[in-house]
Specification:
Strand content: under 5%
Number of helices: 15
Structural class: mainly alpha
Radius of gyration: 20 Å
CATH class: Mainly Alpha
Order of helices and strands: HHHHHHHHHHHHHHH
Shape: globular
Length: 311
Protein backbone atom coordinates (compact mmCIF):
# COMPACT_ATOMS: atom_id res chain seq x y z
CA UNK A 1 0.00 0.00 0.00
CA UNK A 2 1.31 3.51 -0.89
CA UNK A 3 2.00 5.80 2.01
CA UNK A 4 -1.03 8.03 2.69
CA UNK A 5 1.06 11.17 2.96
CA UNK A 6 3.99 10.54 0.67
CA UNK A 7 7.72 10.52 1.17
CA UNK A 8 9.07 14.01 1.88
CA UNK A 9 12.02 15.41 3.77
CA UNK A 10 13.92 18.59 4.45
CA UNK A 11 17.18 19.64 2.82
CA UNK A 12 19.05 18.90 6.03
CA UNK A 13 17.47 15.48 6.35
CA UNK A 14 18.27 14.76 2.71
CA UNK A 15 21.93 15.58 3.30
CA UNK A 16 22.06 13.28 6.33
CA UNK A 17 20.27 10.55 4.41
CA UNK A 18 22.80 10.81 1.59
CA UNK A 19 25.64 10.27 4.04
CA UNK A 20 23.91 7.21 5.50
CA UNK A 21 23.06 5.85 2.07
CA UNK A 22 26.76 5.80 1.24
CA UNK A 23 27.08 2.63 3.27
CA UNK A 24 25.58 -0.71 2.34
CA UNK A 25 22.79 -2.34 4.29
CA UNK A 26 23.76 -5.11 6.70
CA UNK A 27 21.85 -7.88 8.42
CA UNK A 28 21.70 -5.65 11.49
CA UNK A 29 19.57 -3.17 9.57
CA UNK A 30 17.03 -5.87 8.77
CA UNK A 31 17.01 -7.06 12.37
CA UNK A 32 16.54 -3.49 13.60
CA UNK A 33 13.55 -3.01 11.27
CA UNK A 34 11.78 -5.84 13.09
CA UNK A 35 12.24 -4.04 16.46
CA UNK A 36 13.80 -6.88 18.50
CA UNK A 37 12.94 -5.21 21.82
CA UNK A 38 9.24 -5.40 21.01
CA UNK A 39 9.63 -8.97 19.76
CA UNK A 40 11.34 -10.03 22.98
CA UNK A 41 8.75 -8.56 25.36
CA UNK A 42 5.83 -9.89 23.33
CA UNK A 43 7.46 -13.32 23.05
CA UNK A 44 7.42 -13.51 26.85
CA UNK A 45 3.66 -12.87 26.82
CA UNK A 46 3.16 -15.49 24.09
CA UNK A 47 5.14 -17.98 26.12
CA UNK A 48 3.15 -17.03 29.22
CA UNK A 49 -0.14 -17.72 27.47
CA UNK A 50 1.18 -21.06 26.20
CA UNK A 51 2.41 -22.06 29.66
CA UNK A 52 -0.86 -21.16 31.39
CA UNK A 53 -2.79 -23.34 28.96
CA UNK A 54 -0.28 -26.19 29.20
CA UNK A 55 -0.33 -26.33 33.02
CA UNK A 56 3.23 -27.72 33.07
CA UNK A 57 2.33 -30.48 30.60
CA UNK A 58 4.47 -29.00 27.85
CA UNK A 59 4.40 -30.14 24.23
CA UNK A 60 7.79 -28.74 23.24
CA UNK A 61 7.47 -28.85 19.42
CA UNK A 62 4.21 -26.87 19.58
CA UNK A 63 5.82 -24.37 21.93
CA UNK A 64 8.71 -23.82 19.52
CA UNK A 65 6.45 -23.42 16.49
CA UNK A 66 4.04 -21.02 18.17
CA UNK A 67 6.93 -18.83 19.28
CA UNK A 68 8.53 -18.85 15.84
CA UNK A 69 5.24 -18.18 14.07
CA UNK A 70 4.21 -15.38 16.43
CA UNK A 71 7.64 -13.74 16.30
CA UNK A 72 7.55 -13.76 12.49
CA UNK A 73 4.05 -12.22 12.43
CA UNK A 74 5.03 -9.54 14.95
CA UNK A 75 8.23 -8.83 13.02
CA UNK A 76 6.14 -8.41 9.88
CA UNK A 77 3.94 -5.85 11.62
CA UNK A 78 6.96 -3.92 12.86
CA UNK A 79 8.64 -3.90 9.44
CA UNK A 80 5.48 -2.78 7.64
CA UNK A 81 4.98 -0.16 10.34
CA UNK A 82 8.42 1.19 9.48
CA UNK A 83 7.54 1.11 5.79
CA UNK A 84 4.33 3.11 6.22
CA UNK A 85 5.83 5.60 8.69
CA UNK A 86 8.99 6.32 6.74
CA UNK A 87 7.96 9.87 5.75
CA UNK A 88 7.22 10.81 9.37
CA UNK A 89 10.16 8.94 10.88
CA UNK A 90 12.58 11.18 9.00
CA UNK A 91 11.17 14.18 10.89
CA UNK A 92 11.83 12.69 14.33
CA UNK A 93 15.17 12.79 16.13
CA UNK A 94 14.51 9.33 17.59
CA UNK A 95 13.90 7.66 14.22
CA UNK A 96 15.47 9.72 11.43
CA UNK A 97 18.68 7.68 11.39
CA UNK A 98 16.95 4.33 10.99
CA UNK A 99 17.90 2.38 7.89
CA UNK A 100 14.74 3.21 5.91
CA UNK A 101 14.32 6.98 6.43
CA UNK A 102 18.09 7.49 6.16
CA UNK A 103 18.16 5.78 2.74
CA UNK A 104 20.24 2.73 3.63
CA UNK A 105 17.28 0.52 2.73
CA UNK A 106 14.77 1.27 -0.02
CA UNK A 107 10.97 1.17 0.52
CA UNK A 108 10.25 -1.69 -1.96
CA UNK A 109 12.83 -3.88 -0.23
CA UNK A 110 11.33 -3.20 3.17
CA UNK A 111 7.77 -3.81 1.94
CA UNK A 112 8.68 -7.18 0.44
CA UNK A 113 10.64 -8.10 3.57
CA UNK A 114 7.62 -7.34 5.76
CA UNK A 115 5.20 -9.29 3.56
CA UNK A 116 7.49 -12.34 3.44
CA UNK A 117 7.78 -12.34 7.24
CA UNK A 118 4.02 -12.16 7.61
CA UNK A 119 3.30 -14.94 5.14
CA UNK A 120 5.94 -17.14 6.76
CA UNK A 121 4.60 -16.53 10.26
CA UNK A 122 0.96 -17.16 9.37
CA UNK A 123 1.96 -20.32 7.48
CA UNK A 124 3.83 -21.66 10.51
CA UNK A 125 0.89 -20.91 12.81
CA UNK A 126 -1.69 -22.36 10.41
CA UNK A 127 0.13 -25.55 9.45
CA UNK A 128 2.18 -26.36 12.55
CA UNK A 129 0.05 -24.96 15.40
CA UNK A 130 -3.66 -24.59 14.60
CA UNK A 131 -6.07 -22.54 12.49
CA UNK A 132 -7.30 -20.41 15.40
CA UNK A 133 -3.75 -19.31 16.21
CA UNK A 134 -3.24 -18.34 12.57
CA UNK A 135 -6.53 -16.41 12.45
CA UNK A 136 -5.56 -14.49 15.58
CA UNK A 137 -2.17 -13.75 14.04
CA UNK A 138 -3.88 -12.45 10.90
CA UNK A 139 -6.27 -10.34 13.00
CA UNK A 140 -3.40 -8.77 14.93
CA UNK A 141 -1.25 -8.18 11.85
CA UNK A 142 -4.05 -6.71 9.72
CA UNK A 143 -5.27 -4.44 12.50
CA UNK A 144 -1.80 -3.24 13.51
CA UNK A 145 -0.68 -2.46 9.97
CA UNK A 146 -3.82 -1.20 8.26
CA UNK A 147 -6.07 0.18 10.98
CA UNK A 148 -3.53 1.41 13.54
CA UNK A 149 -0.55 2.40 11.40
CA UNK A 150 -2.01 3.33 8.04
CA UNK A 151 -5.23 4.99 9.21
CA UNK A 152 -5.32 6.09 12.84
CA UNK A 153 -1.80 7.20 13.76
CA UNK A 154 -2.12 10.14 11.41
CA UNK A 155 -5.78 10.95 11.89
CA UNK A 156 -7.14 10.09 15.35
CA UNK A 157 -6.18 10.52 18.99
CA UNK A 158 -7.76 7.08 19.53
CA UNK A 159 -4.93 5.38 17.66
CA UNK A 160 -3.24 4.03 20.81
CA UNK A 161 -6.44 2.60 22.31
CA UNK A 162 -7.53 0.92 19.08
CA UNK A 163 -3.99 -0.28 18.44
CA UNK A 164 -3.98 -1.90 21.89
CA UNK A 165 -6.75 -4.25 20.72
CA UNK A 166 -4.48 -5.71 18.07
CA UNK A 167 -1.37 -5.52 20.23
CA UNK A 168 -3.01 -7.67 22.91
CA UNK A 169 -3.11 -10.75 20.67
CA UNK A 170 0.31 -12.44 21.38
CA UNK A 171 -0.54 -14.08 24.74
CA UNK A 172 -3.86 -15.26 23.32
CA UNK A 173 -2.07 -16.92 20.40
CA UNK A 174 0.14 -18.74 22.88
CA UNK A 175 -2.89 -19.82 24.89
CA UNK A 176 -5.02 -21.11 21.99
CA UNK A 177 -2.03 -23.03 20.65
CA UNK A 178 -2.75 -25.45 23.50
CA UNK A 179 -6.35 -24.80 24.52
CA UNK A 180 -7.67 -24.55 20.97
CA UNK A 181 -10.46 -22.20 22.09
CA UNK A 182 -11.15 -18.69 23.34
CA UNK A 183 -12.33 -19.00 26.93
CA UNK A 184 -12.30 -16.88 30.08
CA UNK A 185 -8.56 -17.28 30.65
CA UNK A 186 -7.83 -16.20 27.08
CA UNK A 187 -9.91 -13.07 27.61
CA UNK A 188 -8.08 -12.27 30.85
CA UNK A 189 -4.71 -12.56 29.12
CA UNK A 190 -6.02 -10.32 26.35
CA UNK A 191 -7.31 -7.76 28.86
CA UNK A 192 -4.00 -7.64 30.76
CA UNK A 193 -2.06 -6.68 27.66
CA UNK A 194 -4.82 -4.37 26.43
CA UNK A 195 -4.82 -2.31 29.65
CA UNK A 196 -1.03 -2.32 29.80
CA UNK A 197 -0.36 -0.80 26.36
CA UNK A 198 -1.88 2.73 26.44
CA UNK A 199 -0.06 3.94 29.59
CA UNK A 200 3.13 2.35 28.29
CA UNK A 201 2.99 4.18 24.94
CA UNK A 202 1.62 7.43 26.36
CA UNK A 203 4.60 7.58 28.72
CA UNK A 204 6.80 7.47 25.62
CA UNK A 205 4.51 10.03 23.99
CA UNK A 206 5.05 12.50 26.85
CA UNK A 207 8.76 11.85 26.87
CA UNK A 208 9.01 12.44 23.10
CA UNK A 209 6.17 14.94 22.74
CA UNK A 210 8.13 17.40 20.59
CA UNK A 211 9.19 14.64 18.22
CA UNK A 212 5.63 13.42 17.76
CA UNK A 213 4.34 16.97 17.35
CA UNK A 214 6.90 17.80 14.67
CA UNK A 215 6.19 14.58 12.80
CA UNK A 216 2.43 15.09 12.85
CA UNK A 217 1.37 12.00 14.79
CA UNK A 218 -2.01 12.37 16.49
CA UNK A 219 -0.74 11.19 19.86
CA UNK A 220 -2.82 11.98 22.94
CA UNK A 221 -0.13 14.15 24.63
CA UNK A 222 0.20 16.23 21.45
CA UNK A 223 -3.53 16.71 20.90
CA UNK A 224 -4.91 16.86 24.45
CA UNK A 225 -1.86 17.81 26.52
CA UNK A 226 0.06 16.00 29.24
CA UNK A 227 -2.47 16.49 32.06
CA UNK A 228 -5.26 14.80 30.12
CA UNK A 229 -2.81 12.08 29.09
CA UNK A 230 -1.93 11.39 32.74
CA UNK A 231 -5.63 11.06 33.58
CA UNK A 232 -6.09 8.64 30.69
CA UNK A 233 -3.09 6.60 31.80
CA UNK A 234 -4.69 6.11 35.20
CA UNK A 235 -7.92 4.95 33.54
CA UNK A 236 -5.98 1.96 32.24
CA UNK A 237 -3.50 1.33 35.06
CA UNK A 238 -6.17 1.17 37.79
CA UNK A 239 -8.36 -1.52 36.12
CA UNK A 240 -5.22 -3.42 35.11
CA UNK A 241 -4.58 -4.32 38.77
CA UNK A 242 -7.79 -6.31 39.45
CA UNK A 243 -7.74 -7.68 35.90
CA UNK A 244 -4.26 -9.16 36.37
CA UNK A 245 -5.38 -10.71 39.68
CA UNK A 246 -8.19 -12.62 37.96
CA UNK A 247 -5.73 -15.32 36.89
CA UNK A 248 -5.45 -16.27 40.55
CA UNK A 249 -9.19 -16.28 41.16
CA UNK A 250 -9.76 -18.47 38.09
CA UNK A 251 -7.28 -21.03 39.50
CA UNK A 252 -4.64 -20.45 36.84
CA UNK A 253 -1.92 -19.15 39.16
CA UNK A 254 -0.91 -19.34 42.81
CA UNK A 255 -0.37 -16.96 45.71
CA UNK A 256 3.06 -15.77 44.53
CA UNK A 257 1.54 -14.46 41.33
CA UNK A 258 -1.33 -12.78 43.23
CA UNK A 259 1.08 -10.96 45.51
CA UNK A 260 3.32 -9.96 42.61
CA UNK A 261 0.43 -8.66 40.51
CA UNK A 262 -0.92 -6.70 43.47
CA UNK A 263 2.40 -5.13 44.45
CA UNK A 264 3.44 -4.27 40.89
CA UNK A 265 0.04 -2.79 40.15
CA UNK A 266 -0.02 -0.64 43.28
CA UNK A 267 3.51 0.62 42.55
CA UNK A 268 2.46 1.61 39.04
CA UNK A 269 -0.61 3.43 40.38
CA UNK A 270 1.59 5.26 42.87
CA UNK A 271 4.03 6.27 40.13
CA UNK A 272 1.14 7.41 37.98
CA UNK A 273 -0.22 9.65 40.75
CA UNK A 274 3.25 11.16 41.19
CA UNK A 275 3.03 12.41 37.63
CA UNK A 276 0.43 15.03 38.53
CA UNK A 277 2.95 16.85 40.72
CA UNK A 278 6.11 16.05 38.76
CA UNK A 279 8.31 19.08 38.13
CA UNK A 280 10.22 17.30 35.39
CA UNK A 281 7.61 15.58 33.20
CA UNK A 282 10.19 14.16 30.83
CA UNK A 283 12.06 12.42 33.63
CA UNK A 284 8.81 11.16 35.15
CA UNK A 285 7.64 9.83 31.77
CA UNK A 286 10.96 8.05 31.26
CA UNK A 287 10.62 6.32 34.64
CA UNK A 288 7.02 5.36 33.86
CA UNK A 289 8.06 3.91 30.51
CA UNK A 290 10.90 1.87 31.99
CA UNK A 291 8.71 0.63 34.83
CA UNK A 292 5.99 -0.45 32.40
CA UNK A 293 8.47 -2.70 30.60
CA UNK A 294 9.69 -4.18 33.88
CA UNK A 295 6.09 -4.60 35.06
CA UNK A 296 5.12 -6.71 32.06
CA UNK A 297 8.29 -8.79 32.10
CA UNK A 298 8.15 -9.57 35.82
CA UNK A 299 4.40 -10.22 35.78
CA UNK A 300 4.63 -12.83 33.03
CA UNK A 301 7.77 -14.48 34.39
CA UNK A 302 6.08 -14.95 37.78
CA UNK A 303 2.92 -16.08 35.98
CA UNK A 304 4.93 -18.83 34.29
CA UNK A 305 6.70 -19.83 37.51
CA UNK A 306 3.49 -19.90 39.55
CA UNK A 307 1.16 -21.55 37.04
CA UNK A 308 -1.14 -23.99 38.86
CA UNK A 309 -1.65 -27.44 37.39
CA UNK A 310 -5.17 -28.80 37.80
CA UNK A 311 -4.36 -32.08 36.10
Amino acid sequence: MDNPVGYTNTAESTQEASKEAARSATWRDFVSLAKPGILFSNSITTFGGFWIASQWNIHWPTMIWVLIGTILVMASGCVLNNYLDRDLDIKMERTKNRALPSGVLQPPTVMVYGIVLGVAGLTVLGLLVNVLAALLGLFGLFGYVWIYTALLKRSSVWNTTVGAVFGAVPPVIGYVAVAGTLDTTALILFAILFFWQPPHFWALGIRRIDDYRNAGYQMLPVVKGTYQTKLSMMRYIVPLVPTSMLLYFTNNTGTLYLLTASILGLIWIWKGVQGFKAKDETLWAKKMFVFSINYLTILFIVMIIDTVSTK
